[in-house]
Amino acid sequence: MQTPAYRLEPEDYDLVYEPAEDSFLLLDALEDELEAIRKLRPAVCVEIGPGSGIVISALATALRGSYCVAVDINPHACRVTQRTGRLNDCRLEVVNMDLLGGLADGCVDLMVFNPPYVPTAEENGGDLEEQIGVFGEGGHDLVKSWAGGFDGMVVTNRVLRDLDRVLSKDGVFYLLLLKENKPLNVISVLGENGFLGRIVKERKIRGEHLFVIKISRK
């Protein structure tokens, strides 16, 4: 799976998450899993929080028969994702919305998420908007792309709570986590709620230990 071309304008850098090692780890994991993904024949593929759009564009290129959708609360990320899709001549829809709320029940066959995973506060340290405010007004949208609140799981937990509703019977979810997010604990909790989770790829990079978890129904 080729890394898509992308272009960030100077004004984008303070507004949109630039592809980094975590982005490329997720791409590598999806490439490793591509044969299994194709066997699923996913009709609908969704990326939450596409940022620059390289992951959903790679999927749209590799899965030409699938309907690929990117959803992001950041309108600037939506604009850049659309641009990346055009640069790579791939069909994808981009929707400006908060996580999964606008998706129909059981509609997602393949979902991917590189969430805001960096712990940014102690327990009971205020809500996520307050925590993000500590970093200042400049680049507020950019901070949202990596600031994960207490234990780095505030946004991810919202998605996991909605997973049973949106994921199709044979659907799969690829989720990127940081070691501090306690991925084995996440897998254990998923198991208690009817899902199987396993680590399919991990990588240590510049002070971070990252994991990609594959999640499916039992």
Task: Write a structural description.
This is Methyltransferase small domain-containing protein. Keywords: Methyltransferase, S-adenosyl-L-methionine, Transferase. Belongs to the eukaryotic/archaeal PrmC-related family. InterPro entries: DNA_methylase_N6_adenine_CS, Euk-Arch_PrmC-MTase, PrmC-related, SAM-dependent_MTases_sf, Small_mtfrase_dom. Pfam families: MTS. By secondary structure, this protein is of the alpha/beta class. The chain has a single domain, classed as Rossmann fold (3-Layer(aba) Sandwich), CATH 3.40.50.150. It has 8 helices and 7 strands; from the N terminus they run ααβαβαββαααβαββ. Strands 3-2-1-4-5-7-6 form a 7-stranded mixed beta sheet, sandwiched between helices. Strand 1, helix 3 and strand 2 form a beta-alpha-beta unit. The longest helix has 13 residues. The radius of gyration is 16 Å and the shape is globular. It starts with 20 loop residues before the first helix and ends with a strand. 43% of the residues are buried. About 6% of the residues have low confidence.
